[in-house]
Amino acid sequence: MAKFLEYQGKEWLAKAGIPVPKGRSASSPEEAQQAAEWIGKSVAVKGQVQAGGRGKAGIVKLVETPSEASAAAAEILVKTVKGLPVRQVLIEEKLAIKKEYYCSFVINNARDARCPMLMFSSEGGMDIESVPEELIFKMNIDPIFGLQIYDAIDFCVRAGIPNKELSKFASFLTKLSQVYKKYDCQTLEINPFVMTEDGSLICADCKMEIDNSSVGRHPEFGIKIARDLPGEVTELDMIGWSIEETDARGTGFLMNMGYDEVSPGYIGYHPIGGGSAMMGLDALNQVGLKPANYADTSGNPVGSKIYRVAKSVLSQPNIDGYLLGGFMMANQEQWHHANAIVKVLWEELPKKPGLPCVLLLCGNREDESMEILRKGLAELMTSDGIGKRIEIYGKEHVTDTKFIGQRLLALAKEYRAEKDAQGK
Amino acid sequence: MLEIKEKSITIGIDTNKCDTCETKACAAACKKYARGLLQIVDGKPSVEHLSAEEVLRLGTECLACEIACKFEGNKALTINIPIAGLDVYLTKRGLQ
Questions:
Q1: How far is it, in rounded angstroms, from Cα A377 to Cα A369?
Q2: Segment A397-419 mean pLDDT
Q3: Best exposed site among A111, A161, A361, A406 by fewest CB in 10 Å?
């Protein structure tokens, strides 16, 4: 999912006519002070990261003056929450809160549903997870007709909203459901939305996640990369996205796994398919090796796509090996992998002579694929050749993660020792 | 020099080398691994029987012709597969 930070989500809510507090983002204490001056009253300073529990992490502060906003921003902008650095804060007006509510629109994947679902509770605010199940009200929404006002009124009655407020709440939830649909959201969570002392309903927070598949329909979002990534987008992530973005011929997924490009023990990781990827990680974990990246070339991708992924994986600096992990039986024709890998290794091994490459392929056209690999790499695989640490395995080791891991470790140790001896 | 453009790759064939190629392995590989776009005309690989649009539509970018030519033919065929951003990535790390 393409995830928006709170301030970004609120900007889109505001553009759709949903009330949000007056505010704007800031990247420095100075900008925070200017924003607080612009608002002209007490403000909330809220660190912007893709993580829950921000209040408990100490990155949400209420302050009275612009100089206090500046100081709070300075304190928050040096923090890291769940491994994510806080690069921006949202400065927004402090609300006179009468009561906090929770609502979210998500996809209900249940077999008998397969539609958006509204969840609502009058127990909004922090720790929605701790609210008893019976106080969270749920309703499936017709994906064609959306949330109708009469359904919203029935729902609000069920959720215990007083009669005199029904129309206001139903209208608010209906508008939010329209935003959910308009922006092709996967999740739209407002926790809390608040009723202010003067009786208005305002979105005090916003978690908006857009369906990756719909990003092409929304150039206005300016989303660079429509993927679920654990942290900030890296150059390797962007390269991976460029492989996939306009080419739907099978999967050619590639993403960074947060390796530091300096430490030893990282392996360029190229599994084929999700189950295979898990087994490959087992193989690495069992022997203390770490994946530099995640990749996946499954769904019978074309050779050029496999080549791009493999080449990018092998281009990562300072890796101690390359694992093509075709664990388990693949239904795709493996000879496309074989052709692509031969081409890549001929190009890349001269730059990384002796790099351990454990190649495991199994599945359709396995015999032909093995022949391509063995024939294509034979000249490299001589005892003193640049491919002397290439090892090729097929179905005999297709579930043998321990063996594959141990072979890779033994070769990686040899390679590292050789590099150390050469002072590299 | 014959240049064939598929969706995301460019195949370059030094057809001068093809006269002495006995295997014509590129065409055989194209038939086995893909849709047989490459045909041998006057001893050289050719896609003249297809329009540029047909080449784009039918080309599967399987890379088999290059591997076959390299190991069974006269090393006349190379495929250029651009990867957006990789040159910059490598240059920044002094690896280019």
A1: 12
A2: 96
A3: A111
Q: Is residue A5 classed as helix, strand or coil in its secondary structure?
A: coil
CA distance B79 to B66: 7
Please, are residues A295 and A243 in contact by the beta-carbon 8 Å criterion? no
Interchain pair A343, B85: CB under 8 A: no
A1-20+96-223: CATH class: alpha beta
Work out the average pLDDT over A306-335.
94
Which CATH number applies to A235-421: 1.10.720.60, 3.40.640.10, 3.40.190.10, 3.40.50.261?
A: 3.40.50.261
Q: Is B1 on the interface with A (CB under 8 A)?
A: no
- B85-94 exposure pattern, b = at least 16 Cβ within 10 A, e = fewer: bbeebeeeee
Residue-level pLDDT at A352: 96
Cβ neighbours around A224 below 10 Å, total: 12
Which site among A233, A339, A381 would you substitute to test the B interface, given the most B Cβ atoms closer than 10 Å to its Cβ? A339
Contact A315 B84 (CB under 8 A): no
- The C-alpha atoms of residue A249 and residue A360 are separated, in whole angstroms, by 22
pLDDT at A1: 59
Task: Please give the CATH topology (third level) of the domain spanning B2-92.
Answer: Alpha-Beta Plaits (3.30.70)
Fold assignment, A22-94: Dna Ligase; domain 1 (3.30.1490)
pLDDT in tens, B7-55: 999 999 999 999 999 999 999 999 999 999 999 999 999 999 999 999 9
Tokens found for residue A371: 């022949």
Q: Which residue in the block uniquely carries the two structure tokens 């305002």?
A: A202
Of A286, A195, A295, A285, which is closest to residue A239 (Cα–Cα)?
Answer: A295
For residue A340, what are the contacts with CB-CB under 8 A and spacing of at least 6? A303, A304, A306, A307, A310, B63
Per-residue b or e along A396-424, where b marks 16 or more CB atoms closer than 10 Å to that residue's CB = ebbebbeebbebbbebbbebbeebeeeee
For residue A130, the model assigns a pLDDT of 83
Residue A9: pLDDT band by 50, 70, 90 thresholds?
very high
SS3 content of chain A, % helix, strand, coil (to 5): 40, 25, 35
Tell me which chain A residue has its CA closest to the CA of residue B8: A304
